[in-house]
Amino acid sequence: MNNTPPIEILKKYWGFDSFRPTQEDIINSVLEGKDTLALLPTGGGKSICYQVPAHCKEGITLVISPLIALMKDQVYNLRQRNIRAEAIYSGMHFKDIDRILDNCIYGETKLLYLSPERLTSELAMARVKQMNINLIAVDEAHCVSQWGYDFRPAYLKIAEIREWFEREIPILALTATATGEVVEDIQEKLAFKNQNVFQKSFNRPNLAYVVLKEEYKNDKLLNIVKNVKGSGVVYVRNRRQTKEIAVLLQRNGIRADYYHAGISPDERSKKQEAWMNDQIRIMVSTNAFGMGIDKPDVRSVVHMDLPDSLEAYFQEAGRGGRDGKKSYSVLLYNQSDRINLEHQHVLSYPDLKEVRRAYQALGSYLQLAVGGGQGQSFDFDISVFSKRYNFGTIQAFNCMKVLEDGGWLTMSEAVYIPSKIKVKVSKEKLYDFQLKNRSYDLLVKSILRTYQGAFNHFVSIKEYQLANFMKISQKELAKLFLNLKNLGIIDYKPQKDKPQLTLLEDRIDAKNLLFDKKLYDFLKNRHKEQIDRAIAYAEDDICRSKQLLAYFGEFEVEECGICDVCLERNKSDLNNEDFKKYEAKIKMILKDGPLSLEEIVDSFAPKQKAQILKAIQYLLDEGMMIETKGKLNFVD
Q: CA neighbours within 13 Å on the CB side: how many for 204?
């Protein structure tokens, strides 16, 4: 039995001498076998809370996560620390999945990352039951709750895993954002034995939340990034805007780049690295950027549009100032944001007849017969699908989301799986082929020198690197590999970088497609409530930090003093000396009789207006002045 103290694991693999606040308490709770819910804000070190206890006990930790990019990043980072970790996600070849699951049963793998949809496949269910599971970690745990902002039906099946084992296996649920309703719901849906919540305050006193009402957002953005020095992120609504805004910044002398899920994995990696190393100062991105990226010195996060929930806004805004130094989270807002969000809500819940039509078209697109397809993943290009079957792209996307909410399928972002080769002939025969086919000479030499393991098993190929070395395009390289495959020299699995669609149930006739209308209406109404709360955040003149904290159930907090609302109020605050001066002057103005508020204010310089109004309000509140028929005067 392995009982290594958590702090020794932390030092050995991460090089830290101490845990962050609440991390150690969460880890000890898990090691005591208690079901545990950990609410830690963005950048709070959630992954450490399951990666450390994974090493404190014999066996393997099962990590359930909906984010493929995050799973891949986590596995890569763990392997860099000599920790054995694996991930299974949509689009992977069956043989690779089979090999990974075997390694988890018979090998020394410590962490296995799975999507909730993959977990319920027959293959995964059969193999996971054979594993020595020491902990079930549920990342993005808010997805289990219909009250949350990103409900995923597959999460509701996670509690069933516990029934696969005779022994008690604790669950650690983790999320960065959850309201009180969601906190209760997570524990109920994951079948916690007892309520057990560790919550770090969502308060970020170094973050100045600012809402600016702007019609000309681009001009204001330029003003912000020129005046707030240091690294920053600009969030926009769609991919087209990422490039447009990045070019705008570049033309104004700012080192900027753009990022979204549609660019190639290698390019995304290069952009991300350049930003992390401060070669790029401002990254303009969709919400695809930021997950799993821990850059502590981000000084500004600017939203060009209002997200449709405060959870989403809080998580993205919270990527600023993780080093504890002052940073700005700015929302540029105007009435078109309100109109766009309300229109988006209508589009997000299409007529169920259209959803059935989309499901019928999907079967044709995938060339799948009724009665088949459960658990299978397919490359899915929604723009091609929309054009072929006469849907608007947004309409098609929203139909797929309704099918996802109904538990029929799941969609994932673009998934990069490198190409793989295995040499099917001996080294002698390959060398002989090389001599007879000089056009393949450089490629064969590269295989012989770099990928010697390819004679025994499949090896991953970085096609872009190999193509650069050979001074040919990746398309030409792929053609050479396909030719070698057709000649029987190698087995070749081309790389993938397309979004994936996974069917969770066998295809049925569209007319038999059933929906939970009660759930559909609930989610629709819940989405509208979330939009209304987001709009209220932008429009109400209440301390921004207090609004956000109240949304997450923290009510006994002071006003932050640094948001736009607090700063505006502070501008009009009067010290005693100034108040006495204004009081004396107002008395002098009114010596000939009562005047209207406007007449009094107009007697002062425009820049003094806010303070004069404050002084008059104070005099009225204290009963020192009185208003009669629209006229103000002092009480005798």
A: 28
Residue 254's CB is within 10 A of a number of other CB atoms, namely: 17
Of the ranges 380-394, 416-430, 444-458, 566-580, the best mean pLDDT one: 380-394
Q: Which of 368, 310, 306, 360 is CA-nearest to residue 334?
A: 306
Q: Which of 170, 199, 228 is the last residue of a domain?
A: 199
14 and 143 co-located in one domain? yes
Whole-number average pLDDT of the chain: 88
Q: Which domain holds residue 445?
A: 419-493
Say which amino acid occupies 402. V
Say which CATH number the domain at 48 has.
Answer: 3.40.50.300
Nearest CA-CA partner of 56 in 124, 97, 7, 92: 7
Per the DSSP assignment, residues forming a β-bridge with 626 are 633
Q: Give the pair of three-digit tokens for residue 453.
A: 């393991």
Same domain, 397 and 449: no
Structural contact between residues 404 and 445, judged by C-beta atoms closer than 8 angstroms: no
Alpha-carbon distance 292 to 578, whole Å? 51
Report the pLDDT averaged over residues 417-424. Answer: 84
Per-residue tokens: 566: 């607090």
C-alpha 197, offset from chain centre: 22
Distance CA 265, CA 271 (A): 10
Q: What's the pLDDT at 571?
A: 65
Residues 115 and 257 reside in one and the same domain: no
Helix 544-551 to helix 517-539 angle, to the nearest 10 degrees?
Answer: 160
**156 contacts 189 by C-beta, under 8 angstroms:** yes
Q: Is residue 563 part of a domain?
A: no
Q: Compute the distance between CA of residue 635 and CA of residue 624 in angstroms, rounded to an integer.
A: 6
Domain count, the chain: 5
Same domain, 38 and 181: yes
Whether pLDDT at 1 is above 60: no
Q: Which of 240, 245, 203, 199 is nearest to 222 (CA)?
A: 245
Is residue 559 a part of any domain in this protein? no
pLDDT at 356 over 70: yes
Q: Is residue 614 assigned to a domain?
A: yes
Q: Spell out where 528-575 has E strands.
A: none
Count of beta carbons in the 10 Å neighbourhood of residue 93: 13
Sign (positive or negative) of CA dihedral 570, 573, 578, 583 = positive
The residues facing 499 across adjacent strands are 414
Domain boundary among 333, 362, 384: 333
- Token reading at 528: 């509208």
**Ranges of H-type helices in 294-440:** 310-317, 335-348, 352-365, 382-388, 393-405, 427-436
What residues have CB less than 8 Å from 413, skipping those under 6 apart? Answer: 68, 69, 261, 288, 499
The residue written with tokens 């079901």 in the block is 35
User: Per-residue pLDDT tens for 102-142?
Assistant: 999 988 899 999 988 888 778 888 899 999 999 999 999 99
The span from the CA of 549 to the CA of 568, in Å, is: 20
What is the pTM assigned to this prediction?
Answer: 0.75
For the segment 525-539, the average pLDDT, to the nearest whole number, is: 94
Structural domain contains residue 149: yes
